[in-house]
Structures are given as structure tokens and as C-alpha cells.
UniProtKB/TrEMBL annotation:
Protein's job: Catalyzes the GTP-dependent phosphorylation of 5-hydroxy-L-lysine.
Entry keyword annotation includes Magnesium: no
GO cellular component terms, A-Z: cytoplasm
Name recorded for this polypeptide: Hydroxylysine kinase
Amino acid sequence: MSVKHAKPNLNQSQVAEMVKRLFSLTASEMCSLPSYDDQNFYVAAVEGGEYVLKIMNSEDSKNPTLIEVQTYAMDFLDQNGLPAQKAIPNTAGQPISMEEIDCGYGCQTYLVRLLTYLPGITISKAPLTPQLLYETGKMAARMDTILQKLEHPNLSMLQRENFIWSLSYVPLLETYMNVLDGDPLQEVVKSVIHQYKTSVVPQRSSFRKCINHGDFNDLNVLVQRDESDSYRISGILDFGDMNSGYYIHELSINIMYMMMEHPKPIEVGGPIIAGWESVLPLNEAEKDCLYVLVLSRFCQSLVLARYSVTLHPENAEYLMISSKKGVHILPQLWELGKEQVEKVWFQSAAQFRDTHQMK
């Protein structure tokens, strides 16, 4: 969760010094990249190669073992043919460096990694064709099935109890509900949380467990044009929300964020579900809970973005990217109702599957 003064704010000369000292690389080009809680820099090196330097916020830096597992998972996906970043070892041969830095509010410890740079643009900037949406669903399912094979001595770190961004802990949002005081959305959010408690929680024992990326969103998926001028997924970023969860959570998160980028949000679900089910067909309980879980993610995004803005008003524009769009989509979906939305999603998924099989 965001904490005031946790976000680092290094300048470019500090970053250049750090890259030289920790990785023996000389920065020839550098620019800041957007981030919710951390500080990221694109770095091109004189010695060759393009990288992303990630300086984690001081709160998350207190848990280096968790970051170590996430870094290992990225490498594991890369080894299994998925486009994830790899950590470059520092001069001591370690993927993680702990740095004591004063960012203006006393000396704090920040966890630093240099990651490989992946080419492409964020999927938020690409036209979301049904085929590309299908690919996101397929990629998300492939990713989770591979992560399920992950072995690491500290894998239990991913059991992140009461992790506010996990779809296992949606009722925790009630603590932050005052950020919506006076907003008609507050009633919708309360209703969704009630639905979650009454319809999702009782069926959770039928969900299949897995390790979730947890934030497969429109800014964390990169795409590139291929030879036929179609967009293909070229990168999966930001494993900071990885947690032990359920396959259906990953699909719900995927659908929710792609809805943000589409002119007709309800049309997003079908192709993504078809892509997902080409790898991992849903069971009945998972199908039945998908609607409420997608809405629950909208609620998390809205409530937690508003809360973060109270802590970081200077970063409001970036923090509110998702929630600005979600403000309109959430009430529309709630108004349409579960039956209507499911009908659109699952009928269109079936049609998409049929046309795929005919090709």
C-alpha cells in the first residue's frame, strides 16, 4: 500500500552514478519512465544494451526476499519462452542491490535492480482488435500455467495475506471507503463488495489455485508489429503484485484493464475468454464468479487510486489513469447486470472459438 515519502526521487546524475558503480555501465542516454510507487529509468549504455533501472519504494524494499522470488519468476518465464525481463547481476554477481539514499526525508534503504529492456509500446496505445484481445487471454493463461511449475525455497512469500490488491481480499476496501464519500459510486462499490461476499467467497473452494502475476494490465503488456503488420505481445512487465491466488483472478484482471482501453468495453470479454480457454477451460464456479470478480477489480482500482492521490497529489495524473475510465464503466456493468454481461461475454467467446477453429 502507498505510504507517504516511500517513493524514491533520484535525479539523473544520481542514477548515472549508481549504474556505473553497481553495474560498470556508462549511461549514454537516460529518461524517466512512469511508475505507481517506484522510480524507473530507461538507460542506454555506451558499452551496448538497453536497460530499465528500477528503484523500489522504501516500503516494498523492506521485503527483499519477496522481490527475489519475483525476479526469479521473471527469469523462469523467460526460460519458458515468454517475453519477461531478466535481472542483470551487479558487480558482486547479485540480481538485487540495497542502496542507502537520502531523497529529502532522511536516509532510507531502496532496493535496486537493472532489468533488460523489452521492445514495443504498451497495449494501451495499440488498437485492441479481437485477435489481440484473444492473444492477451491466451498469454495470461500460459503465464499462470508456467508460474504454477515454479520452484523456489521462498515460494511461500507469495502467500501475501491481506494484500490489498489481491482479489482474495476485496472486503478490505471497506477500510478506505471514505475516499468515496459524497460520490454516487460509493453505493455501487458497496453493492459489489456485498455480492463478492455472498456469491464469490462461498464458491472459492472450487477455484483452481495458481500463482498470479496480479497486474496484467494495459500498461504492463507490451506489443510490437509483426511481419503481417498485426500487433503481437512483446513483453510482460511489473511482477510486483505477484501472489498466490487463483486462475480466475488473472483472467478477471486481464478483462477489467482491457475494458478501459476499448470504445465498447463489454465487447472485450468474449475474445479474452476464448483466448484464455484455448489454454485452460473454465469450470462452472469460475464462470459463475467472473462478472463479480471483474467488477471487484474495478472497485479496487477506483478506491485505491483515490486513496493514493491523497498521499501523492503530485502523481495524481498517473495514479488516476485507470480509475478515470473505470468511473464510467463500473456503473454501466452494474446496471446491465450479471446475466446480460455474461450472455454477451460467453456467446461472443463461443463465436470467436468457432471462427478460430474454421480457419
